[in-house]
C-alpha cells in the first residue's frame, strides 16, 4: 500500500540519519524537543517522557524502529513487519526484548508498562 511505502521510506531515512550522526560521533538527543510548560509535569510524567526518549535512543536501531512503529505509530505486528521487511514473529520478539530493555533503563517504580502509556497512547 502507498501508506506502508511512505512509512518504510521514512524509517529508512531516519535510520540513515542516525547512522550518519553516529559516524560523526554525534548522538541525537532531546535538544530538538521543545521545553514547554505542561500541567502533567507536576506528576513527573514529562520527566518520565524525557527519560523514555533517552532509553529509546539507546536501543539498537532495528529494535527501536519496531518499538516506535508499534507503540507510538499504533501499527499492528503485521504492519510493522511489512514496513521493516521482517516477519511478524520477529516483530513480537523485538518488542518483548525492547520493552525489557526499556524497563531496565527507565528508573523507579514509575516505569510505564508500555512506551505508549508515557506518551498518552492506547497500546
TrEMBL record:
SUPFAM superfamilies membership: Sigma3 and sigma4 domains of RNA polymerase sigma factors
Example GO BP: DNA-templated transcription initiation
InterPro entries per UniProt: RNA_pol_sigma-70-like, RNA_pol_sigma-70_dom, RNA_pol_sigma70_r4_t2, RNA_pol_sigma_r3/r4-like, WH-like_DNA-bd_sf
Pfam family, one: Sigma70_r4_2
RNA polymerase sigma factor 70 region 4 type domain location: 50-102
Keyword set includes Transcription regulation: yes
Family designation: Belongs to the sigma-70 factor family. ECF subfamily.
Protein name: Sigma-70 family RNA polymerase sigma factor
Amino acid at each position: 500500500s502507498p501508506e506502508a511505502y511512505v512509512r518504510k521510506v521514512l524509517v529508512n531515512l531516519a535510520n540513515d540519519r542516525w547512522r550518519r550522526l553516529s559516524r560523526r560521533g554525534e548522538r541525537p538527543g532531546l535538544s530538538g524537543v521543545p521545553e514547554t510548560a505542561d500541567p502533567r509535569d507536576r506528576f513527573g510524567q514529562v520527566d518520565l517522557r524525557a527519560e523514555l526518549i533517552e532509553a529509546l535512543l539507546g536501543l539498537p536501531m532495528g529494535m527501536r524502529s519496531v518499538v516506535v512503529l508499534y507503540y507510538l505509530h499504533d501499527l499492528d505486528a503485521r504492519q510493522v513487519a511489512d514496513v521493516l521487511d521482517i516477519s511478524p514473529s520477529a516483530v513480537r520478539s523485538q518488542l518483548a526484548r525492547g520493552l525489557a530493555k526499556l524497563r531496565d533503563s527507565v528508573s523507579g517504580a514509575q516505569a510505564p508498562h508500555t512506551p505508549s502509556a508515557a506518551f498518552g497512547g492506547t497500546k
